[in-house]
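Escalation from tier 1.

The customer reports that the assembly of three entities below gives different structure tokens on two consecutive runs. Tier 1 could not reproduce it. I'm attaching the input and our single run for tier 2 to review.
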Amino acid sequence: MRIAIDHRLSVTVPQGTVQAVFHLLLTPPSGPTQTVESWSVEGTGIGNAGRFTDGFGNAAHLVNQLRPEGEITIHVRGEVTTRDTHGVLGRPAGEPVPALYRRLTELTKAPEALYEPFRDSRDNRLSICHALMARVGDVLGLPEEPEAPKQMQADGGQAQVQEAGEVAERPAAADYAHLFIGAARALDIPARYVVGYRLVDGEDGLHAWAEAFDEGLGWIGFDPHMQICPTDRYVRLAIGLDAEAAPTLRTVPVAEVVQVAKVAAA
Amino acid sequence: MGENTPFDEMYNADGSVREPYRALSEWLGEQPEKGLALMQVDAEAIFRKLGITFAVYGSEEGTEKVIPFDVIPRIIAANEWRKLSRGIEQRVKALNAFLYDIYHRQEILKAGRIPEKLILNNAAFCPQMMGLEPARGVYAHIIGVDIVRVGPDEFYVLEDNLRTPSGVSYMLEDREAMMMLAPDLFQRSKVAPVETYPENLRRTLESVAPAGAGRNPVIAVLTPGIYNSAYFEHSFLADQMGAQLCEGQDLFVDGGKVYMRTTTGPERVDVIYRRIDDDYLDPLTFRPDSMLGVPGIFDAYRAGNVTLVNAPGTGIADDKAVYTYVPEIIEFYLGEKALLNNVPTYNCTDVDQRAWVLENIGDLVVKEVHGSGGYGMMVGPTSTKAQHEEFKKKIIARPDNYIVQPTLALSTCPTHINNDVAPRHVDLRPYVLVGDEVRITPGGLTRVALKKGSLVVNSSQGGGTKDTWVLED
Amino acid sequence: MRMLGRTAQNLFWLSRYVERAENMARLLEVGYRMSLTSRREGGASEHLVSMLKAAEMDEAFAERHEVADVDTVAHFMMFDPANPSSVYSCLLAARTNARSVRTAITTDMWESMNGAWLEFSQIKPRDVRGAKLLGLLQWVRQRSHEFRGALLGTILRDDGFAFLQAGNFVERADNTARILDMKYYVLLPRSSLVGGEIDIQQWTLILRAASAHRSYGHVYHDRYKAHNIADFLILRTEMPRSLVYCAHFVRDNLNLLARLYGRREACHEAMDDLLKLVEGTNMDQIFAHGLHEFLNDFIDGNNRVTDTLSASYNFY
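Tier 1 run:
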């Protein structure tokens, strides 16, 4: 299907900033699951930006602004044709070796209880990953029913029942992805973080999920937050070891960033 | 190795003088009483006046010391040096090939020659470097190899320094001072020059300029600033090369390129010899709290608009845990046997090896995997029982944090001590430049443990330096 | 090789701090001498306090000391690291700047600066009293002269030279203007034809603080007169610490920069404004305008030269 994306980022740097420098990962790749039909990144300094490929194979911009004043807006627009491959991405060219994604990071630490049951599993990787995805959903709760009391098991299996009246902060999709990635890596399965868009009515379309590597099929997407493998409603934007390595925008100095993505069927 | 009598570089066992030291021996004999002592005083004054000082960590701000300089040179024969330099060249070529592989296809890991986790989960491994094509395929352009000698024909590499090795200015200034102090001794010997180092450094840096740079690439030396312990060296090298000495605040990125702020506006920079550690190089990519670096400089590097020397992530090749595999690395990439010995290293995560280490700790050297400068290190034979016990506990608590090696009997050289000449233990750090070709400066920096019997040569631990002579045929 | 903006800044301040160290030493020497000869009750303290005022240190001093006597004032002006204009602080700042631009200055300059700092930092303040204090004050001036000599004798006449010289003479102009302003009331024209004992003492103080007490005689062949003293320190082009001399010196060096870089900047306009104050005028006009107002205008204009210079050449 053809998906139209309208993604706005507004950045407020501290007053008196002499030089602001931005690192942008806002250009989606074309590949087996998607073809970028049109794409534009607009904003002050973008025309003059340094463009390059980062260590994970993402198309990146380096943007700088001298004495920025007020709010800086970055406007990203484009259309992407997507294909439902049941989450299978394969082995796109220009990416680092999958083994890289066995590296453990601070953000992707999973409790042993999460992956230990699979340690000696004789199932294939694909089945293990599906089971892991389900287990992450069990542990963090499903987003569809935020009001229902949840079973939190992040600390290794001990159930904590939420007190009545306490407002639950819904874990972001990134937390689901990190937990899945950490567990997969603990089982020696290369897994990586994906930031992208998801077509969903009336909600912000910015989303995050995971991909795990299978020797036979290559990279396969898993969205433990939605408990599905990505479909043609998903658009991949950038990948990395974790959210810290693949943010849509990184700034110096540290700035306040508000971003909203409108994702619609074209 | 480990024998009780260390190799004396000047005297044979029968008391006769070894060939390379013949002229020096005669010269020493001719010196009037207190001659060396006077020379020592002159040397101190020369160094202090030139401002060759290093800041002492942990001492009061502004405390600066002159590294003790010993007025008796250390001498290496031409044939000895040929052998050494061949081994060094082999090593730095293999290590650069290793870095290229690790940041591309990782064939050596696929082949199972090095455990994958040792690399991938290593803090010194830099994932942001994946897939980058550095100019001429070189990652580590400036390398210091720490070598010790234990016999007439026996050299061991203690460690490789591929991040930002320091000390080369001492090598150059030691020579400068020695020529002022003892011109007559130089006249009697054919000593290979070291003064070519800055020019060779410049050529090396120019040879790795990015494709877009002009005929005369603009080179900058990036220093953390005047409070860094090696600041003198940074300014010295910039001056000798005719390059700009910059602090982070002097550089900025614009349109993906790097510029320096000059009195007449921005000037494009092509090659940056950075003496700032990876972590602090770029707050946009590495530690966000770094005030020393240049935001965006790493992205400009990835965009191919500037060359960083050495490349970030070279630390993976001089990691103490990876050190053990260097002979393996040489064989894998060059198909040759290593010419220089590695010191046997015990792995404390292995139960059997650990048990043996704990039992024999009094004879061993324990080093922290990420330690440097002689800190976090214990030399068994010269340490107390209490220190042995302390390090045993440390090893048991974190076996992966330590490597253990046998105590090497470092060779000794004649050294001026209290108006007398006495043997003291020495090591050697030759400096290697890798660019369009491999350039090794004859000799290097000799560090000497001034305390009798001590094997710790670090300046932070009471070590000094000596001028190092490689004799020409 | 083009010069970093930071290097230009370091050179400018290196010279300024050397000059300031020298001026501090000279001021303290005058204050010390006066305190020895003053017979009036409380006179010693009064002279010392006026020295502190001329150095703009009186408030900072009062925060740290209750009594202004030779020991406390000497320590404060010489050795106190908490006093940013003490000789100690000036030499340290000068040496720090020199270290940052080690490659932009000559070995002779570096050795002079580094040697001065190393020697000074060895001195124990407790040991410096009486004759030793005077000796040390002379030593500070000599080291400043040595540095300037090394500078003049060895450095290329390029942009670095211009920044160094500009810093030196901007500081000197500021110092002379402040000394004059501190005592401007004793220089005002009065009905009495002959200055009293107190006036003479004050005039001597002013001249000595500008190292001008002997050269005054060579220029005026006359006894001390308020009008002459003001004229000497403001308008005489042969007096190397006069405002007009310093302003010309800075102008020449800014012109050197304009020539080297091929363009004039905002600092050249600020310089023209400053020159208008001291050129084509005489002491009668200045007195008519108001000496105090004139000196304040000069100090402001001089500061504007520094500010615009910093902006024009990308200081930080």
